[in-house]
Amino acid sequence: QSGHYGRGELINSECDVDFIDLNVGCPIDMVFNRGAGSALMDRATKLEQILTGMVHVSDIPISVKMRIGTSESKLTGISLCERLKKTGISHITIHGRTRQQRYTKKADWEYINKCKEAADPITLVGNGDILSYEDYNESQKFTDSVMIGRGALIKPWLFSEIKQQKHMDISSCERMEMLKKFTRYGLEHWGTDTSGVEKTRRFMLEWMSFLYRYIPVGVLEVLPQKINERPPYYHGRDETETLMCSDNCQDWVKLTEILLGKVPDDYNFLPKHAANSYSK
Questions:
Q1: Strand, coil or helix: 105
Q2: CA of 87: how far to CAs of 90, 141, 197, 267, in Å?
Q3: 49, 60, 127, 165: most buried, per Cβ within 10 A?
Q4: 50 φ, ψ to 5°?
Q5: How far apart are CA 74 and CA 199, in angstroms?
Q6: pLDDT tens across 232-245, in order?
Q7: Which sequence positions are flagged as catalytic?
């Protein structure tokens, strides 16, 4: 508990940040089993004490991000909002699924709306399943503001679509330019030696485990695409687009070879979120 205070105070004094957000939404077993992440949602008093202490030692805003509960039988989001708003935090972000659901089923925006009412007068930020400007517009009925996560990993141009209120048909050439920019940033950060190249490749491949799920507007039969839809295999409008839409991670490796050179013959990649892909 005191560790959270200390880290919060260190970030406050040594880093140039706009706010500090405590992540109480992580569903990963390794984190949960240590009593961290979403496990703190079932320990309301401790969570309340942690946030109160962080607010006390910081002169920048403190916020918390969580889920609607740890399971269907433990929907604690509303009661936590009622308690945590009294700690002095600036806002609360709610992901509309339980820890048990991870990212299956649809986000529950009706429940998020109830959390908004419980959190009043502080800001409640809703999160879950935003992949189009229509999704964003609909979410405005339920919350004060919106946080976008996976949607931005799948469609980095999503914010432009929301701002312009239209669907953008991004070509494979445009998407390749985004990968080139990522490559440049990676090599600038990690270096151009073997270690730097492979770190850049690994992080790019992790990103591709989300990017491949984008279905080009020109290919879709019905708009908009929904985030949990899994389309049947299809051919893109050119060879590069076909590689980009493949759910075979060896095809993603081929894309990285265009930008970062060949991999060893025995090279193998499996995403951290292995359910996103498979290797044939």
A1: coil
A2: 9, 27, 45, 50
A3: 127
A4: -60, -50
A5: 39
A6: 788 999 999 999 99
A7: 26
